[in-house]
Amino acid sequence: MVNPFFKKTGPHNINFLLKTINLNNINLSNDLITDIKDINSSQKNEITFFHSKKYSDLARKTKASYCLTTENFKSFLPKNCKAIISENVLLDTAKITKIFYPDSIIDEYDNTVRDINETELKNKVKSGRNVLIGENVKIGKNCLIGHNSIIEKNVKIGDNCSIGSNVIIRNSLIKNNVHILDGCVIGKKGFGFFPNKVSNIRYPQIGIVIIEDNVEIGCGSTIDRGSLSNTIIGKNTYLDNQIHIAHNVKIGENCIIAGQVGFAGSSTLGNNVMIGGQAGISGHLKIGNNVQIGGGSGVIRNIPDNSKVMGYPAKDLKNFIRENK
Question: Measuring CA to CA, which residue among 168, 175, 186 is closest to residue 231?
Fold first, then answer.
């Protein structure tokens, strides 16, 4: 499920889209494009992007009708997908995303928020003082919400959940038996920018945060919503305090992550992963199942299943111990 909460324009003519991003020298048909999505979830009559060889396997299987890519990568695309050659794939993707989702750049103040009312209380929701609820918010039964928390627009919370004090949530789907401790911020836009000498350009963030059943999120943690795909926390995963999870990160089931761990965007963790405190995970990496990462480690490469690593850059634990005796 992607971007169910953002108003979408279109469909748009492919030539209109390309002219808008100054690629109007390309002579294409008058196809109507209905949406822009990541290369894994895109379908017929949609446009996607492909900018890194890390995603070549997904590129070969994409169902998109058009793809922004480079001259070097166009050969990976299937016959059903027409390549659109771009000198700056991510920047052009951001521009087209903004056409489809013009409200996705700025998280405006939610002026629909109201005091929690009798409808929520009838669902056996218990709340502290100064709890505010926004538009398109649904809260399940037997939930607890602490003082001064704001459940902004576009949030669904399942049954038997607890939300601490001073928590802010928006653009999120939270399943059952989830516990979010004090001071968390969930579902705000991620840190997506393109550096520019004149002015930095923000990347639209149209994904959401999905938190599966039986997850606990420690105090002061921040989970950014996805850009074109979603940020996902798998079932039975426990996050310690002050953890940052960037946009598009996918964390598997039964993971345990200690305090002050940081995840850069679009990295994926398997199931049963354990990470020690203050470790850092670089972007666009794949961490396998049953992996253990020592505290303070810096992960800059993919890690296969059943590995134990430590250090910077993170390496096999036995090698790390041998080198640091």
Answer: 186
Domain count, the chain: 2
Smallest CA-to-CA distance from 155 within 197, 184, 124 is with 184
Residues 31 and 78 in one domain: yes
- Residues 129 and 262 placed together within one structural domain of the fold: yes
My answer on whether 141 and 289 are in the same domain is: yes
132 and 274 part of one domain:
yes
- Residue 262 resides in a domain: yes
Q: Report, as an integer, the average pLDDT of 120-131.
A: 80
Q: Which residue has the higher pLDDT, 242 or 26?
A: 242
Summarize pLDDT for 218-270 with one digit per residue, the tens: 999 999 999 888 999 999 999 999 999 999 999 999 999 999 999 999 999 99
- Between CA 266 and CA 90 the distance in angstroms is 14
Q: Which among 45, 65, 100 is the end of a domain?
A: 100
Residue with tokens 């965007």: 265
What confidence tens digit (pLDDT) does each residue in 265-309 have?
999 999 999 999 999 999 999 999 999 999 999 999 999 999 999
Burial class from Cβ neighbours inside 10 Å (0-12, 13-18, 19+) for residue 71 reads exposed
One of 12, 147, 247, 284 is an active-site residue; which one? 247
**Nearest in space to 7 (alpha carbons), one of 112, 95, 93, 101:** 101
Query: Has residue 5 been placed in a domain?
Result: no
**pLDDT score at 310:** 93
Whether 106 is covered by a domain: the verdict is no
- Let me know if 247 is a catalytic residue: yes
Q: Is residue 279 part of a domain?
A: yes
CB 69 within 8 A of CB 47: no
Q: Is the sign of the CA dihedral 28, 32, 37, 39 positive or negative?
A: negative
Does 213 lie in the same domain as 78?
Answer: no
pLDDT at 235: 98
pLDDT bin (cut points 50, 70, 90) of residue 135 is confident
Q: Which residue is it, tokens 């919503």?
A: 225
* Region for residue 125 given its phi and psi (left: phi exceeds 0; alpha: psi -120 to 50; beta: otherwise): beta
Domain extent for 283: 114-323
